[in-house]
Amino acid sequence: MADLYGDNVTSKTKAVPQGFADATNARGRNLSLIDQKTLAAAAIADRIFLGSVPSVSVIKKDSKIYNAALGAGVTLSIGDKNDDNALVAGQAVAVAGSFDLVTTANVGKKAWEMLNYAEDPGDNLELFATIAGGAATGVLAWEIDFTQ
To answer: pTM of this prediction?
Structure first.
């Protein structure tokens, strides 16, 4: 039997929090971007600004996008100005529902890593939802939780 630790833990201590390789993971503040937008025939390639997160923040696994039935064939991609699909690529939103913003492979990664930057740009990163597949009509809501 072995004790296994996450990639960011460097040492196990009796004190809380544990020793982390990156100090931004210890005693971080939990923040949220919570908002919604009612779309009225929003066109293909229109972008919805979801908010800004610090490049060194960790976007949490429980972050979600909620959608009404936005229209036949409509898809959403989530990313930033450099890569529309960095977080989510072509998610079908013709039927009402919700989807995760963070994949298992991205759990614990910094925002700049999740958005496919080669190195930390050291600035806030703006997140966008981009419409594809048809005009979108209905409510789009989001709750993006992150640590800072």
So the answer is: 0.82
